[in-house]
Amino acid sequence: HALWDYTLGHQVTETYDFTHAITIAAREFAPDLFIVTGPGTTLGGAVAQSMILSDWRGMGSKTDFQTWQKEGPVLISMGMEDQRKAVTKGD
Predict the structure, then answer these.
(1) What span, in angstroms and rounded, lies between the C-alpha atoms of 61 and 68?
(2) CA dist 88 to 59, 76, 80, 83, 84, Å?
(3) Taking a C-beta distance cutoff of 8 angstroms, is the pair 48, 65 a contact?
(4) Domains of the chain by start residue, with CATH
(5) 27 Cβ contact list (under 8 Å, min separation 6)
(6) Cα separation values, 71 from 28, 56, 57, 65, 75, Å
(7) Is 90 exceeded by the pLDDT of residue 69?
């Protein structure tokens, strides 16, 4: 009953702090890069902004993110074919 209430209550009616989730993931798992699985590419901007807001690897601005992205990358979107190829095998 508690799981039902949480799943169909709290998860539906309460807000979710996406930036906090990305911040915790960055600090706890220290990933080499973030992979946005999709669908599409719409979460890429939100993840990038969250990385900046959490000061991940000293990233403090959009310019910092763009510099890291050119050198790295630090964010891969599976919805973008060229980026997907960087982290998958095959055609």
Answers:
(1) 11
(2) 26, 11, 12, 9, 6
(3) yes
(4) 2-87 (3.90.25)
(5) 54
(6) 23, 15, 13, 10, 11
(7) yes
Structure-token pair, residue 39: 């669908």
Q: What is the rounded radius of gyration, in angstroms, for the C-alpha atoms of the chain? A: 16
In contact, 54 and 47? CB cutoff 8 Å? no
Q: Which two tokens stand for residue 63?
A: 């310019």
- Two structure tokens written together for 30: 């220290």
- Give the whole-number percent of the chain exceeding pLDDT 70: 98
Q: Which run of H or E residues covers position 34? A: strand 34-36
Q: Which residues contact 48 (CB under 8 A, 6 or more apart)?
A: 62, 65, 75
Cis bond upstream, residue 39 (ω within 30): yes
Q: pLDDT tens-digit profile of 7-47?
A: 888 788 888 899 999 999 999 999 999 999 988 888 999 99
